[in-house]
Amino acid sequence: MNEETLRIRRVEVTGLFGLYNHKIDLNLQERVTIIHGPNGVGKTMLLKLVAALFSGRLVELARTHFSTFTVTLTDASILGFEREEREFVDEEGVESDQPRQQYLFERSVRAKSEKRPPRIVIRAFAIADGRREEAELGALPNKSSSARLASFIDSETPWLYRMGPDQWMDREYKEYLTAYQVIERYSDRLPTRYQGKLFKEPELVRNLRRKVKVHFIETQRLLKLSIQEAEWARHNADRTVVSMVKSYASELKEKVSATLANYGKGSQTLDQSFPWRLLHGDQPRVPVDELKRRMVDLEKKRDYLKKIGLLADDNSYPFDVNAIDSLDSTRLDVLALYVSDTQSKLSVLDNLSERVYLLLDIVNKKFRNKSISLDKQEGLKAVSSTGASLDLDALSSGEQHELVLIYDLLFRVDPDTLVLLDEPELSLHLTWQKQFLQDLLNIVEATRFDAIVATHSPFIVGDRHDLMVPLASQEAGE
Q1: Which of 104, 213, 287, 429 could form a disulfide with 141 if both were Cys (CB 3.0 to 4.6 A apart)?
Q2: What contacts 280, CB < 8 A, 6 or more positions away?
Q3: For all residues of the chain together, what is the average pLDDT?
Q4: Which pLDDT score, from 0 to 100, does residue 115 have?
């Protein structure tokens, strides 16, 4: 594991929605933890809280109703938030920090006798190496105040453009942002009178959260809003809805192209240096039986790479293993170096080929009357059982969900990332739901990430209750 990367050991929240207390100890050995429970107990919100914390969207986190939210990491350090309500004082002896609230909050129209709503105070803290550091969250702007502040930042930031009531386009990062996200990202561009009045993240909190990688897979998986590359420079760039299954197919095409380019470059280098290494290298002599074994393994590997579509079927001559016995020592040395070079060339394809194989194996075992294959021109290709090509958008909702989800897990998650997966059962037949957990465990074994899966389907859990943390209706105070 990367020295700078930490894993999450425990997630705990109290008073969620003012009702629920949940504690989740992650299964760090098998790397998959399932949180299971009925609707409304906070499964999705738990994932959103973790994602918001480690993505730096702290205003989004702070606006959630809870009492405490803490995350314990594998080095025993702790990140957390405490939330409490305080009453406003309407007398002349108002609390000293109340004026800063008035900078950022619109005062609602109300009768003089009407009591002010409570003021929410959030404290962020981190504990590491026996040291605790904390800071109180500044005023949280309400929706209309946020829009005004974001609009001011927009006017001072050339690459930021408002696209809708609560949506800005950030050309620098090529992302869409809400007003809260604009304020968090560019708070340094606010007027001086606001500086220091919004939340300033403690340095220890920031340093710790940056050592944890998260990847949130939400329930909306089939479509996304996108802006074409050439349109990022335009103020009024048109937004388009993009099919995720086609987007991922295109992304895979680029990954295959880049990997094959590296394969070709490495092959060329080895081929060019082959005569020099043969004449001047000091290669240890390989026993005949060992050389035969390597040749058989190489032949199998080339067939496998051709089968999944990474190597072209060029009708190359297969190794004649039996002919080795008649070779003299000089020819054996030449052949041994050739075999060693071929192993090195093909090893460049190992990482990609393992993931492609798993993707095709998982989906093609489930799809009926059609199959998915790797295509160097399109990335992914769908073909019916009659041999007719199918548009990827013509796949059923369940088939698209399966393909998009498995691709996301295999190709878009770095090792030691925490994947937050919400409702994997969406649009999946019961048979596919029953198979999902084993597929996930196989993927985790190959890619080495952690996962918290939120579900209310007992078929996802199956007989692996050892991986499950039930979120029952345990109310705060019980």
Answers
A1: 104
A2: none
A3: 86
A4: 60
Residue 111 clears pLDDT 80, i.e. is over it: no
3-state secondary structure the chain: CCCCCCCEEEEEEEEECCCEEEEEECCCCCCEEEEECCCCCCHHHHHHHHHHHHCCCHHHHHCCCCCEEEEEECCCCEEEEEEEEECCCCCCCCCCCHHHHHHHCCCCCCCCCCCCCCEEEEEEEEEECCEEEEEECCCCCCHHHHHHHHHHHHHHCCCEEEEECCEEEECCCCEEECHHHHHHHCHHHCCHHHCCCCCCCCHHHHHHHCCCCEEEECCCCCEEEECCHHHCCCCCCCCEEEEHHHHHHHHHHHHHHHHHHHHHHHHHHHHHHHHHHHHHCCCCCCCHHHHHHHHHHHHHHHHHHHHCCCCCCCCCCCCCHHHHHHCCHHHHHHHHHHHHHHHHHHHCCHHHHHHHHHHHHHHHCCCCCEEEEEECCCEEEEEECCCCEECHHHCCHHHHHHHHHHHHHHHCCCCCCEEEEECCCCCCCHHHHHHHHHHHHHHHHHHCCEEEEEECCHHHHCCCHHHEEECCCCECCC
Mean pLDDT across 58-83: 92
Residue type, 65: H
Statement: residue 283 has pLDDT above 60: yes
